[in-house]
Amino acid sequence: MLCEYRCSDGTRLGAWPLTFFDTATVDELYGKLLFKNVNGERVERRTTLNHAMKTARSAWNTVSRANPGVCPAKNPFEKMGLQSTSRETPFETFAELQAFRSKAVQMGYQSIATGALIAWEFLQREHHIYTAFMAEHYRPDDHPGHVHVVNPKTNEGDWTPLFNKKRKPLYPELMAELDAMKVLRPTGGLMLRRDGSGLPWATKGEMLTHFARVVNTIVRAAGLRDELTFTSFRHGGATEAATSGLSDSELRMKGQWTSNKVLKNYVHKNDEMHINAHEKRRAKRAEQ
Predict the structure, then answer these.
(1) 281 Cβ neighbours under 8 A, 6+ residues apart
(2) Per-residue model confidence as pLDDT tens digits over 183-207
(3) Residue 283, exposed/middle/buried by CB under 10 A (0-12, 13-18, 19+)?
(4) Whose CA is closest to 128, among 139, 141, 138, 115?
(5) CA distance 56 to 54
(6) What does CATH list as the number for 94-265?
């Protein structure tokens, strides 16, 4: 986002020398990138831009430590006072997930339909699913009853069982799709690739911009809410898990979160939670 920004003279921002950057320049850049044009409408992308600025800050510090004297002493990306958006991430219902998957398959995007179910069941980010999930992670010879769910953010993973103690599949629909997909990956590599070409969904720099556009097209074609994104599947799955009665520790294990504090960002309150909570209270009163 930052490097490919085109300045008024047509040059790439990524081609500028580091000595050009100061706090005023970075603040002005933030203002220019905060909104993007979507179908003629200005849409705020504060969360994405905050990530970009934090990444630039870390990169500046890393280069500065490794090459003393190359970077100006002051990091212009520090102390920006970044504020997160107060907008709650829209989350899918299971019915919306099914409608999305059905339309994706109809439009020829089986890889996106399967990815949506992975996000829902394993609470994984799209980046994890389309850049880190390898064919060898699914039912390898040494773990035929498991899938290795990788979290690139922490560079850790977890072997998740695919069968219960009676050897019945826990995810029959998803497993059928992944079994069929793995047959097409005899040499390994990325499990979920573009339908038809077999190319990765992620482009240079592991960007999923084109992928996001296709997801938006499927959302509209399925007649779903415009605000829904691929991220909505992960949030919907987490909310379903909480509604189903999973404990905080079970939720943390499922989503590979390290603390309870982050759960509030993924578990969204809904009517079912309120109903379940009150019915449990009434059942307790009846016992007493």
Answers:
(1) none
(2) 999 999 999 999 999 999 988 777 7
(3) exposed
(4) 115
(5) 5
(6) 1.10.443.10
